[in-house]
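REQUEST FORM: STRUCTURE PREDICTION
Request ID: SP-0412
Submitted by: Lab K.M.
Chain count: 1
Length (residues): 330
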Amino acid sequence: MDSSPHPTTATSPPPATGTVSGKAVRPGDRIFLGFSRGSGIALLAIMAAIAAFLTYRSVLAISGDKSNFFTTLDWNAVGTEPKFGIAVLAFGTLVSSVVAMLIAVPVAVGIALFISHYAPRKLASPLGYVIDLLAAVPSIVYGLWGALFLVPQLSGLYGWLNDYLGWTGIFSYSNGAARSLFTVGILLAIMILPIVTSVSREVFLQVPRMHEEAALALGATRWEVIRMSVLPFGRSGVISASMLGLGRALGETMAVATVLSPSFLISASLLDPGGGTFAQNIASKFSEADTFGQDALIASGLVLFVITLLVNGAARLIIARRKEYSGASA
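STATUS: Completed
RESULT:
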């Protein structure tokens, strides 16, 4: 009887149906790759279609405009001699968004740092949950709260700013309802605060623990750890979170329309009624505009589209420049 061991039969791998970079690819991976690639191409096609539609309708509006499309200081897209000015709407949109960012980003970063590095776990978890819930509140709810509560409460603040800072011209205020770009900026800051806070908190929680422990071992205080390890590591994430918030601020419609009383004038004072924003103007005038007026409103939407792309592109450049400091490879 042959006592030699029987040769083991090697189990052959399942047949590969394709290769990617010289490696075998399973059918499920190929299907997923196809769906992912198709989704990316579809997204680019949709963006191109939107841009083409906006451009076509905008050309019709600009070619029929009887005044300067960019510098006219009023909006009259209905009638025999239509005229409209993007400058007023661009001014209102950018000013209100900048005010919102100046208020919301520092507060959001502070809240995110408190939740991630200061608050005890029993408090941090419920507080983070509440922040996430605030991000889901509908815009119209914020708008109603702003119109019924925020606007009446800001009259005293406006008077104080006028008394002590009115000489700057930026905070000069004449009596009236506090329905200005500054009010819109405060409301937008409250709306984007949960978004910036949530993303920043998750970024700060990803800081390598060894970085913080090394700083503490060298005798750094809690604030020095945050300043030297946490903030540099999370800078790109905070910029990304800020751009998400800015995107919502630029395109917010119902909340702005509920609070703002536009005058279609460019004023140096933030406390005077401003010229409105792109989204608010489109929402309030589209239903009553004629064909040319709708083309004009679509043209203003194209300008907002371009502004958003420029802002996101600038954010990507900033993030790319800061990408070399990640700490992940340490």
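NOTES: The first strand starts at residue 19 and ends at 20.
Reviewed by: T.R.
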